[in-house]
Write a structure and sequence with these properties.
Elements: H1 9-36, H2 47-71, H3 75-95, H4 97-100
Helix pairs in contact: 1-2, 1-3, 2-3
Length: about 100
């Protein structure tokens, strides 16, 4: 059961901000480690592709968080998670708009 003291709007903003940043850093570190150990090839992938993909996957981690909170009826935390998610999506669209279009 989800502890009700964590069902706050501000806690949702906190975990909605920290989780994608952590997931992005984790994927970036793992991919960089595999490239340097020559276990994974970097041929055919541009730098922009890797950053775009990692950032989208890290944003998708907030969808998993929202599902977790929804199943535990933590509605206020869900509302808090949506704010940084939309901010990150807008930043992503602005940053990669020239590459997408």
């Amino acid at each position: 059961m989800f502890n009700r003291k964590y069902d706050t709007f501000y806690f949702g903003i906190l975990i909605g901000t920290i989780t994608p940043i952590f997931i992005f850093a984790l994927f970036y570190f793992l991919f960089d480690t595999f490239i340097h150990s020559e276990d994974l090839s970097n041929n055919g992938f541009g730098f922009g592709f890797r950053i775009r993909t990692f950032s989208l996957v890290s944003l998708a981690s907030n969808a998993i968080l929202m599902q977790y909170c929804r199943k535990r009826y933590a509605i206020n935390a869900m509302r808090g998670i949506t704010i940084p998610t939309f901010v990150f999506i807008i930043i992503w669209l602005i940053y990669f708009s020239s590459e997408i279009i």
